[in-house]
Amino acid sequence: MKRELPLLVTAVIGLFMILSFFVPNHLVSVPADFLQQCAVIIVAFGYVLGGANALRVNLEGIAKRHADWPFKVVLVAALVFTVGAGLVEGRHWQDNRTVSMFLYNQVYSPMQGTMFALLAFYIASAAFRAFRIRTVEAGLLAVAALIVMLGRVPLGNSMTAWLPEPLRLEAMQDWIMNVPQNAAKRAILIGAAMGVMATGLRVILGIERSYLGGGD
Questions:
Q1: pLDDT at position 215, please?
Q2: How much is the pTM?
Q3: What is the DSSP string of the chain?
Q4: pLDDT along the chain (216 residues), means of 10
Q5: Spatial contact of 15 and 203, defined as CB atoms under 8 Å apart
Q6: End-to-end CA distance of the chain
Q7: Distance between CA 171 and CA 77 in Å, rounded?
Q8: pLDDT by residue (tens digit) across 41-62?
Q9: Long-range contacts at 35-42 (CB < 8 A, ≥ 24 apart)
Q10: 157/19 Cα distance (integer angstroms)
């Protein structure tokens, strides 16, 4: 019964949510909206559990004086201070000149920009390894990447400004991004969507049971 009841609840709710997309009736849409709101509440509790787990793990590291315990102190202090500021300011935390918005605009956003700036070096290193032309496909990839990169900067546009507009780097990179790149991206998204649908059906039908904490 410990496994059959969760499987039954999952199957019933999953089928009901699928039904809500095809049956425009308030007897279906109202309960579906309620279930979606319940899911949002559960996700919110997940954030709370995640924060509590982060506190527990880092406090244990501080108590045991791990090698990086000073960084854990900074993390715990920042977490407690940010959550405390949000609780004090309540629904007005997005107003101007609040502590929460100051932390977001002056601390979080610059740190996020720094992380993305550091990732640029890793992306450049990966691109250098990927663009080693050993096959025809790698050569096509390198040529397309070069056209796209040059076509997005003023230098590339000035280099081909004397050519007819369809042959300029800017126009060529627009065509690459809008036609072959979009086609490949949509194919990947369609494949991913089909995978999600297959996984959802496996869960609804009780074939996939990993969320119960074990195998079959």
A1: 52
A2: 0.55
A3: -TTHHHHHHHHHHHHHHHHHTT---HHHHHHHHHHHHHHHHHHHHHHHHHHHHHHHHHHHHHHTT-TTHHHHHHHHHHHHHHHHHHHHHGGGTTSTT-HHHHHIIIIIHHHHHHHHHHHHHHHHHHHHHHT---SHHHHHHHHHHHHHHHHTSHHHHHHTTTS-GGGSHHHHHHHHHHTHHHHHHHHHHHHHHHHHHHHHHHHHTT---GGGTS--
A4: 76 83 83 88 90 91 89 92 87 82 89 86 75 77 83 83 85 91 94 90 78 60
A5: no
A6: 14
A7: 51
A8: 999 899 889 989 999 999 999 9
A9: none
A10: 52
Give the number of other Cβ atoms within 10 Å of residue 151's Cβ: 21
Amino acid identity of 118?
Answer: L
